[in-house]
Amino acid sequence: MSGRICIFEDGKFANFFPLSLTQPVFGLRVGTGTLRERWLSDGVSGQSSLVCRDYLADVVRLALPGVPVNEAVAADTLFVNARWLCMTTERDALVSRLKDDTVALQGGRVVAARVRGDAAADLARALRTQLSDAAVDAVCAQLEKARALPDVSDADVLAPELERVIDGRRLHRAEWPEARVLSVPWQLIEHNTACIADDFTRVAPRGHAKDAVIHPGVHIVEPKRVAIGRRASIRAGTVIDATDGPVVIGEGVVVMPNATIVGPAAIGAGSVVKAGARLLPGTSIGKVCKVGGEVDETIFADYANKQHDGFLGHSYVGSWVNIGAASNNSDLKNNYGNVRMWNAGRHRDTGRRFLGLVMGDHTKTGINAVFNTGTVVGFNCNLYSSEMPDAFVPSFSWGHGREVVPYDLEKAMQTAAAALARRGVALTDAHGRLVARV
After folding, report:
1. For 366-382, what is the mean pLDDT?
2. Can you state the angle between helices 160-168 and 117-129, rounded to 10 degrees?
3. Which residues make Cβ contacts (< 8 Å) with residue 360, sequence separation at least 6?
């Protein structure tokens, strides 16, 4: 693929709350990186740009300097929906089929488009109308009402603004029913194992970097399926078992003694795997995390901590989260039934037997915290005690068990600033505006 590529959010961003309250959908993690990074990791030459909600734009610019965010598009462009999760061979096959001035649809959702010149500019503007502050306010108002409504379909209806551009510019329509378009957060967990394996096909070189330190007593099973990055340190007694899938260990990672890592698994740059940790298949750890205890098929975003013993399974943990010692979650109901989980204002049958915890950015838990199967905890919560909370904990909640009160914004900001400072990251005015907006 060559030329300009634009990765965009669409009007379904709220389906990924609370994870997407402070992250664009393309910033969510799966496999060895984010949804955005999966598109740009290989085979793409030319300039990339991003379209996201207006209130996120300033923070995204800080995180990705030099990448155009919500800027005018006036050149031939390949547009890609952030929710489209592609494996490498699928991506290449589908994109090669997309002809000029064509919009690929799946029902009422735009999956991708290859559009030239002024038509590209019109399409970009139409996409942004779904992401304005007014549009976000309207979506949040709908979520407030949704609690009183029965389950509804995830079917999309093409926005009128997009209809006008497609018809007015005489763009061709192509149905792509085979495209894998994500609709809910637990699909990230569901596809994580396959994404790690797919990402490994693009890792080069394999083996371990020359300056990585592999201490005596480390045991690596299937070393051809293991990649260990520069300046990584794997301490004595560690077992890395890639029998059932690859293991990717990033630059500067420290794996402390007697840890066990079973692939498929991925550990991001600068992270620490604590002594005696058990990382089981399907686990992805972002950058600058500290993870210990038993972890199974779980995704950690960047700067997340779960340092101590305790079980976490089939879960997604947001950035700047700290989970206290001896905390545990359930990921299987006692009756082996399907798990229900809060999503976009209502509890829904996920169709999954194994599903644990989804926890939004900047949330903190005390020691001995426990979470039931299918629990969702919002953004910037502070929870303590061993009492089990409700299956849905709203953002900015403070308290124990089911006894929670609103978390004062000023206190929440002070805690966030302290957490960032410990990692040498400044809480900018842009971050402050974002937290206040949420």
Report:
1. 95
2. 170
3. 17, 18, 19, 21, 22, 318, 321, 377, 378, 379, 380, 381, 395
